[in-house]
Amino acid sequence: MTKLFSEQIYCMPKRKKQNKLKEKTLEKSKDNNSTEKTKDLRKDDLSEQIKQAAAGLIYISETDAEILLFIGKQAENISKDLLLSQTGNAADALVAEASFTEFFARLTEIQDWFGDEEKETVKKFVFLKELLEKNLRDLRVFKIGKIQLDIYVVGLDAENNFLGIQTKAVET
To answer: How many domains does the chain have?
Structure first.
């Protein structure tokens, strides 16, 4: 047993060394991948900004749903048909279009009865709205479905990619 025990002690540092070598190899691989993706840096940076701005925000309807980043593919323009295609919905799905300004109106307006937490949430929605307005063009809001809705607030970025936010709602 003494021999087995000593071999285990002897082997353990080797495993740690091997794990460190694997970690270094993975780090180098990540570095190479990041240099290859420099042309997507601007899109990724904007995507990350939108993701951070939406973090923790909830869209309140008859249900409460997170607001999440939406990343689509390149397109010449924004249309309901392209959005349905990019989101995997049926081409004949029910789609209603809403105004970008109207979508954010109730989310960005401070009411008399708001406490500090609600006021802070409004500030976050204002920041998200302004971020989208400054960085995306042809902003549109699409509601897909009838009672249980998938909501997409999308525009085109500088490289003509669909980009924006998505959430869910229940409207009866």
So the answer is: 2
